[in-house]
Amino acid sequence: MQPPGADEGTAATSAGAEPPEAVDGAATDGDAATRPHLDSGAAAVSVRNLTKTYGDDVRAVDGVSFDVEPGTVVGLLGPNGAGKTTLIKSVLGLVLPDAGAVDIDGVDVYADTREAYRHVGAMLEGARNVYWRLTVRENLRFFAALGDVDPAKARERGEELLDRLDLQEKADTPVNDLSRGMKQKTALACTLSRGVPVVFLDEPTLGLDVESSLSLRRELRRLAEDESTTVVLSSHDMGVIETVCDRVVVLSEGRVVADDSVAALKALFRTQRYRVVVDGRIDDRLDARLRREYEVIRSEPVGDTTHLELAVESGRELHAALGAVLDAGHEVASVDAADPDFEEVFLRLTERDAAPVTDAPVGDDPEGGADAANGADTGVRPGSGANSGADVGADR
Ligand SMILES: Nc1ncnc2c1ncn2[C@@H]1O[C@H](COP(=O)(O)OP(=O)(O)OP(=O)(O)O)[C@@H](O)[C@H]1O
């Protein structure tokens, strides 16, 4: 976190270190290394009707609401310019929103800034997250110390993170001499070094090779499952979203267009599409009949077979279509359901005319946190907390 008005690019900020005053104010309950727990029963993060406009007309975040349950990983997904970074910065108090409310573990970040951000870590994309002249190990110790972690426990946790994120080999190398991916992993390790229960990560896999991205995914799942860490991350990487996130909030043009589990979102777009392989090549007459009576997405000769893709409204309709094929003297070699993958779901959700989730509840959580009107708090208390200063987000 960062004190109001501070230069966002400073190392302590974006590696998730709290502002100095927050560190001073952090609770030291006898065992400073004891991991704080969010046990108030409140959502770990609650965002209500958050709105941010840059200048006169760039509405980067437009009435966004969602909750994040403790110990879950929630992905923010959206095309370039959808508002993900602005949203994360607004939640972190690095950008002053025009309206809305944010609670962390039930504490209003604008009313009680120090308390709200006490157990929050963050890694922001494109910012200098770590001290480049220090080695990886030194950075880990530095950020753990900022979090008031007992030095012995900090060392132990630091070594664990070095192992898990495959950084041991470079542990004593100055960050300046590392590849971009290694720097990214170091920044992440530093964010995690304090063992905070809520972590925000903006594009954490950016610049990572496949192996590093996989170890990062494992680590994020482990944090949620073994340490009940709440993680909010933004990513363009569908693999990360699909394998790491419990839930995904999809943004488009500053608005929430979907808020549900990956599986539920896939189900939303599960058309009844089937791939049918027909023995032999179908003639023009059968082709015309199928096209007339059914939605034929594809009909193509492949070797001695014909590959069809059909969209049907019911199993009965599928059987009727297959009956037409059989009546024409063909055998049906195979029938497979064709579901959209998550990338396709995402593209369809973020199409300009996609209906917001509030209009089309899906899955088992129809409220989904997407209803901007629900319980909206439309006023940022002016002059309160970290945001009483100037808008520090104008860094682009
Ligand atoms: N400091 C700023 N001043 C003016 N406009 C800004 C500023 N920061 C972001 N914007 C604009 O706000 C909108 C949302 O940008 P933001 O960076 O939040 O989106 P994003 O989803 O994080 O994009 P990306 O995936 O490309 O990082 C864009 O139109 C962007 O140009």
Mean pLDDT: 77
Number of helices: 13
Give the fraction of residues assigned to helices. 25-40%
List the ligand species. Answer: adenosine-5'-triphosphate
Give the neighbour order of strands across the main sheet.
6-7-8-3-9-10
- Rg (CA only): 25 Å
> Beta-strand percentage?
15-25%
| CATH homologous group name of the largest domain | P-loop containing nucleotide triphosphate hydrolases
Distance between the termini: 19 Å
The CATH topology of the largest domain: Rossmann fold
Number of E-type strands: 14
CATH class of the largest domain: Alpha Beta
Any low-confidence stretches, pLDDT <50, length ≥5?
A: 1-38, 352-396
Domain ABC transporter: 45-278
InterPro entries: AAA+_ATPase, ABC_transporter-like_ATP-bd, ABC_transporter_ATP-binding, P-loop_NTPase
Biased composition (Low complexity): 369-379
Family: Belongs to the ABC transporter superfamily.
Description:
This protein has 396 residues and is an alpha/beta fold. It is 32% helix and 22% strand. The protein has 2 domains: 11-267 and 347-382, 3-Layer(aba) Sandwich (Rossmann fold), CATH 3.40.50; 271-337, ACT domain (Alpha-Beta Plaits, 2-Layer Sandwich), CATH 3.30.70.260. The protein has helices at residues 11-14, 20-25, 84-92, 113-116, 136-146, 151-164, 180-193, 210-227, 238-244, 262-268, 284-293, 315-327, 342-349, and strands at residues 45-54, 58-68, 73-77, 99-104, 107-108, 120-123, 198-202, 230-234, 247-252, 255-260, 273-279, 295-302, 305-311, 332-337. The strands form 3 sheets. Strands 6-7-8-3-9-10 form a 6-stranded mixed sheet, sandwiched between helices. A hairpin with a 3-residue loop joins strand 1 and strand 2 (58-68). The longest helix has 18 residues, at 210-227. The structure holds adenosine-5'-triphosphate. The site of adenosine-5'-triphosphate (ATP) has 15 residues, from strand 2 and helix 3.
